[in-house]
Design a protein that fits this description.
This protein has about 270 residues and is of the alpha+beta class. It is built from six helices and eleven strands. InterPro entries: DUF6612 (IPR046720).
Length: about 270
């Protein structure tokens, strides 16, 4: 009987040990799988990778639009009467590195009056300009190819804009939409004023209107490719104003990018 009892206890101990070992093995395997899985990216991670990706861009196509509309808060009670001032800058261009060439178009509009300026730079670094539909004219330029390329590259790689984005990265909502990451923000945080101002410093007086104003509303969105962390679109709309002012200004901005590191420039007609 004693031997039978020992045999039963031995069997029970063996079963318990097997269960414990199996449990430990499963737990270890689960922990190993969890450790091997990559951690999901944060908005800060995506902004950092985007900042690195645009450093390596040598050729691309882009479009850029920036508009502002200033109007009276209460036109009926304003001592100056109804005020409506519209202005904007639309740009598009191509930068090619092999062979080197640049083509840009810029249209400035103020209260219905527009002026279009086009520039073309060939692989010999010769500059041609055109106003509206006038013939192309060869113009002297002392800037090197690199200096001219840097001006266009700021459309996609502007270190001050990137720094401003990094400062607000934690406030951006990160979503995955198909093949893209989408980072967005809606609110009135004053920290985003620098992002708006650095969107296009070349817009001159349009951007300067943002100084010393408050953000009344803002919707911002940045779309980035998952595969390369290259940008495809940056856009925003916002309303700003001063507390003591009877005016408000609505801004919209949008910039798109395509054919990154593959873009080629087609020589415009009319240039010999």
């Amino acid at each position: 009987m004693y031997k039978s009892l020992r045999k039963i206890l031995l069997i029970i101990s063996t079963v318990i040990l097997s269960v414990v070992l199996a449990s430990c093995g499963t737990k270890s395997q689960t922990e190993s799988q969890q450790e091997s899985q990559p951690k999901p990216l944060t908005s800060q991670d995506v902004i950092e990778k985007y900042s690195e990706a645009v450093k390596n861009v040598n050729s691309f196509k882009y479009t850029s639009d920036f508009t502002s509309k200033t109007a009276s808060k209460n036109p009926e009670s304003s001592p100056l009467g109804p005020i409506n001032l519209d202005s904007g800058i639309s740009k598009d261009g191509v930068l090619s590195s092999e062979p080197f060439s640049i083509l840009t178009n810029q249209t400035m509009t103020i209260t219905g009056t527009s002026l279009k300026i086009s520039n073309y730079i060939n692989e010999s670094n010769e500059l041609y300009t055109r106003a509206g539909n006038e013939p192309w004219k060869k113009t002297n330029s002392k800037k090197t190819q690199s200096e001219k390329a840097d001006v266009v590259k700021k459309e996609i790689y502007n270190d001050k804009f990137l720094d401003a984005l990094k400062n607000v990265a934690g406030d951006l909502k990160l979503e995955e939409q198909g093949e893209n990451y989408v980072l967005s923000y809606s609110g009135t945080d004053a920290k985003f004023m620098e992002v708006l101002q650095q969107f296009d410093r070349g817009a001159g007086s349009v951007v300067n209107k943002l100084a010393d104003t408050n953000i009344l509303s803002l919707n911002f969105k940045l779309t980035i490719k998952k595969s390369s962390f290259e940008p495809t679109e940056i856009q925003f709309d916002c309303e700003t104003g001063k507390n003591e002012s009877s005016l408000t200004t609505k801004f919209t901005g949008k910039r798109t990018f395509s054919e990154i590191n593959t873009a080629k420039v087609t020589k415009p007609e009319g240039i010999q």
